[in-house]
Request: fold
Amino acid sequence: AQSVTQPDIHITVSEGASLELRCNYSYGATPYLFWYVQSPGQGLQLLLKYFSGDTLVQGIKGFEAEFKRSQSSFNLRKPSVHWSDAAEYFCAVGEMGAGSYQLTFGKGTKLSVIP
Amino acid sequence: DTEVTQTPKHLVMGMTNKKSLKCEQHMGHRAMYWYKQKAKKPPELMFVYSYEKLSINESVPSRFSPECPNSSLLNLHLHALQPEDSALYLCASRPDRVSLYGYTFGSGTRLTVV
Reply:
């Protein structure tokens, strides 16, 4: 079974600074990888996804992520953080199991932004 | 329409009540999911419906009863819940080719059991 590790529980950055959120996965084949963002009390919004092809993936809100098979990583980056980016970020890996496609989430990284 | 709509947004119920959560999507997705999310935790899978048939039940207590009346609608019937069932309940759907759009999540129902 696959697993996802987000090593950082909480990250604080200043507005305008760059951001990198780490994600490591464990999966035998080429995984389907996702990053979701969740504002307090809200649902999850898909930022970007990787299935195959170009290992640098562009998403919404100026986010990008790079798939590195050798490091089993899919880190999320943004060159300049805005105060509105403060939220919880979840990395997820998808696989087919028990007859249906399933997502497994990491524990999440809470991002705080200092004005 | 590219949304998953969940109603109600908030629900407070007593331990002897019966209530239902509703989830609707009109994107033609044939797989629909219920997740439970406790505070400061990731979502945990509860049920998966594929082509209106229950395909996965992650050992969820019988006080939670899912129903998929048609391809656009997913319900979660609640009965005799416990205070520890208080959580954010999220619905999600996906197309057959998950690579097209990934999963789409609703904004959730915040359930409080008193």
